[in-house]
Amino acid sequence: MTTKVNQLIAVIPEDFIRQFSSEVSCGQWLIDQIFSKIKPFEMKLGISSLCQQASDLKKGLKEAEKTIKIMKFSKSNAKVKAFKELLAVAKLICSENLPEMEALSHTMLQKIKNYDDKHAQIY
Question: How far, in Å, CA of 98 to CA of 59, rounded?
Fold first, then answer.
């Protein structure tokens, strides 16, 4: 666990999270148990995808931060959101991730490209 100004970063074991129906319900429980008595803050919790190795932590941190940014701009009052719930929106809303956006577009359009390549006609 580490802290920054206006930010708390924690690595939570997968075994602990499995005790709940979802990552979001685990996050909501954590907020309720740890921060429920502290009223002056607005707490937002972004949950990254599972980090299997220490080298995954930087990517996980970026996913969690991106999730929180999207939550701040959305009209939802949700306090907890998992990155995987955002699907393509998370990749498209932040333009600083051009390689990630390109990979997503290639994945999404690959079937169309394969069809066009297979059925191309010369006019």
Answer: 15
Mean pLDDT (whole number) for 77-81: 82
pLDDT tens, position by position, 86-107 = 776 665 665 556 677 677 777 8
For 28-47, how does the pLDDT look when each residue is reduced to its tens digit (9 = 90+)? 998 888 877 776 667 788 88
CA dihedral of residues 61, 67, 72, 78 (deg, nearest 10): -120
Query: Shortest CA distance to 79 belongs to which of 34, 49, 19, 17?
Result: 34
CA dist 3 → 10, 11, 20, 107, 116 (Å): 9, 12, 25, 36, 51
Indicate the helix (H) or strand (E) that contains 80.
strand 80-82
**Dihedral sign from CA coordinates of 89, 94, 95, 100:** negative
